[in-house]
Design goal:
The protein has 464 residues and is mostly helical. Helices cover 73% and strands 0% of the residues. It contains 19 helices and no strands. α1 runs parallel beside α12 and α6 runs antiparallel to α14. The two termini are 38 Å apart.
Length: 464
């Protein structure tokens, strides 16, 4: 039941989240969360590693995220919950597994929130050097905290328009890229497809493998759709619509953009440092660098907004299940978990201040620790769906949304994920990141297990 807004915080907290998010907002959130700075600024790293063959890496990563989202969509439609994959892991594999996945994802998001605030502030400073970076970062954190406190409808609307801006930028880029490749721009000769026909994979399979681990993280964030499904007006219809529309658009935008970049900018080009700007500069578009910088700022702020939302809802769900302090599941105002928002953003504020006091030391270490978290979350989602779907089929339980090709496609997704891990461990840099993430998982799991035993012993002593 939605509390009517009167401008006064109710004295008695609500016990359920609202359902004010619209299907269009959920769809654009899923699209916008996957289209971030990783595409606008980071796609050049993939082209540098693999040349035009980076498209193979994108196809593999894109196939994996499609399978993960189908699996999450099936579970979210059957059980819309703000804990999403954490709840599903608990149902499938037990309480420790569920709480570990939830806390791991929460920690990843609160670290990334600080990184995104600093990144957006740094980009803004590069085009508007009037306010210090640390002031801009704190202002941005404060603004987006306020947005998340005023209700899910306002959050959804902000995220909707952020996504619209990013999509519009990509569509414009694709149109300019097509005109450039077809030779339709006056005074600018077409670069043709020489990069593809001349040396498609300059670094061979090793380059494609190296690019795969870079590319895979560009799709991170899409899983937030399963978290937001709990606050939509019609979860079953909204999730189905989001899954159907988001996935093909992500592939078109990502693969289309990377195709243009790989065709226009050869491996080793300086333009790959900011690939969208590099293509637009070659096309003779004035102010391209500034325009893409501002688009990247929007991408980072969109991700900050979505990640703060996702972090607050995850810790709210953990609290509801007795796996986080009880005050974090209290709702105020327009059914907003204000304490959960506050705790989630507090870590971001602290990390931001520490990074500003100790530049290039705090955040890189934290990001290295949580860098592989999305892979673990995706793996837990696929395993959970495999278990829960078999359980539902065995018990004759109807599901409102069913993943096709089960169980073959779920198993195929796990195989692809295993390949990504193998590739990651074959590279010293990514191997270190994976080891750090697994050590973090072990520590969280141990803490969750100890917490469960303490609660169990207390419950037993009270009963006696």
């Amino acid at each position: 039941m939605t509390t009517k807004s009167t401008g006064v915080i109710p004295s008695t907290p609500s016990t359920t989240l609202g359902h004010a998010m619209k299907p269009r907002q959920l769809t654009m959130m899923g699209l916008g969360s996957a289209i971030g700075a990783g595409l606008f600024l980071g796609s050049g790293a993939g082209v540098q590693a693999a040349g035009p063959a980076v498209l193979v890496s994108y196809l593999v990563a894109g196939t994996l995220i499609i399978l993960v989202m189908w699996a999450l969509g099936e579970m979210a439609a059957a059980n819309p919950n703000s804990g999403a994959f954490s709840v599903y892991a608990e149902k499938a594999m037990g309480k420790t597994a569920g709480s570990t996945v939830g806390w791991l994802w929460w920690l990843q998001l609160v670290v990334v929130i600080a990184a995104e605030a600093l990144g957006a502030a740094g980009l803004l400073f590069s085009v508007w050097p009037l306010v210090p970076v640390w002031v801009l970062a704190l202002v941005l954190m404060t603004v987006f905290t306020a947005i998340n406190l005023v209700g899910v409808r306002s959050f959804g609307e902000f995220e909707f328009w952020f996504a619209i801006l990013k999509v519009a930028a990509i569509v414009a880029f694709l149109l300019v890229g097509a005109a450039l490749l077809f030779g339709w721009l006056p005074g600018t000769p077409s670069p043709g497809l020489g990069n593809f026909t001349g040396n498609f994979a300059p670094a061979g399979w090793s380059g494609i493998a190296a690019a795969l681990f870079v590319v895979i993280f560009a799709f991170g964030g899409t899983e937030i759709v399963s978290v937001a499904a709990a606050e939509t007006e019609d979860p079953v219809r909204s999730v189905g619509q989001a899954i159907r529309t988001v996935l093909w658009r992500i592939l078109v935008f990502y693969i289309g953009s990377v195709f243009v970049i790989a065709a226009v900018l050869p491996t080793g080009s300086e333009g790959l440092k900011s690939p969208f700007a590099g293509v637009l500069d070659l096309a003779g578009i004035p102010g391209a660098g500034t325009a893409i910088t501002l688009v990247a700022v929007v991408a980072l702020l969109s991700a900050l907004n979505a990640n703060l939302y996702g972090a607050s809802r995850m810790v709210f769900s953990l609290s509801e299940r007795g796996e986080a302090p009880a005050f974090l599941s209290r709702l105020r105002g327009k059914q907003v978990p204000m304490a959960a928002v506050g705790v989630s953003v507090a870590f971001g504020f602290i990390a931001t201040v520490l990074e500003l006091l100790f530049p290039d030391k705090v955040l890189p270490a934290l990001l290295n620790l949580v860098g592989s978290t999305c892979l673990v979350v995706w793996g837990s989602a696929l395993v959970s769906q495999l278990i829960l779907r078999r359980r539902a089929d065995r018990d004759g339980t109807g599901l409102p949304l069913r993943m096709m090709g089960f169980p073959a496609l779920t198993v195929f997704g796990l195989v692809l994920l295993a390949i990504v891990f193998i590739v990651g461990f074959s590279n010293p840099e990514s191997a270190g990141q994976l080891v750090a993430t697994f050590l973090l998982i072990a520590a969280i799991a141990a803490a969750c297990r100890v917490g469960e035993r303490v609660k169990s012993s207390r419950a037993t002593s009270h009963a006696n």
